[in-house]
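Is flavin mononucleotide placement plausible here? Inputs below.
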Amino acid sequence: MITAEIKKYVDKSVLCWLATSSLDNIPNVSPKEVFTYYGNTNIIIANIASPQTVKNIKENNNICVSFIDVFIQKGFQLKGVANIVGKDDTDYDTIQAPLLQITGGKFPFATITNIVVKEVKRILAPKYILYPETTEEQQIQSALKQYKT
Ligand SMILES: Cc1cc2nc3c(=O)[nH]c(=O)nc-3n(C[C@H](O)[C@H](O)[C@H](O)COP(=O)(O)O)c2cc1C
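Reply from A.M.:
I modeled the complex. Tokens:
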């Protein structure tokens, strides 16, 4: 489910955006920087300062997470089911290891969101569709120009 290409985009994306919903259908989206894949089916995200996200997942485990390479302007939207892994859970140390590699231990994790991915959709800038001759290199150059201003 999480292909080599998706893993490449996870590695190249500075942030992901995690969407959850409360039991009464109020959506919540917030950025997370400390995230990676776990095996070929899971995405893991460190809960450092995400009280509403955690509350929502405990009420409703359906989530959606998106990430893009802001220079190439392509990425993925993944939908799945999440659970909150706490320090008392037997697999906590194993699951937190790849996230600790990202932070070097600088940020304490309250818990970890462990997502089993069920659906995968590509995200790409409309320019790639409207102007199919657009190359990734052109998008990178145009993004670099945009972000410099
Ligand atoms: C650039 C950036 C990266 C962030 N990365 C994380 C993260 O990896 N984990 C986390 O728990 N919060 C992270 N945050 C903080 C949450 O997005 C923020 O506290 C948010 O309000 C959480 O709200 P929620 O409980 O509604 O999800 C980050 C914020 C920013 C701006």
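Short version: Residues 15, 28, 30-34, 46-53 surround flavin mononucleotide (CB under 6 Å).
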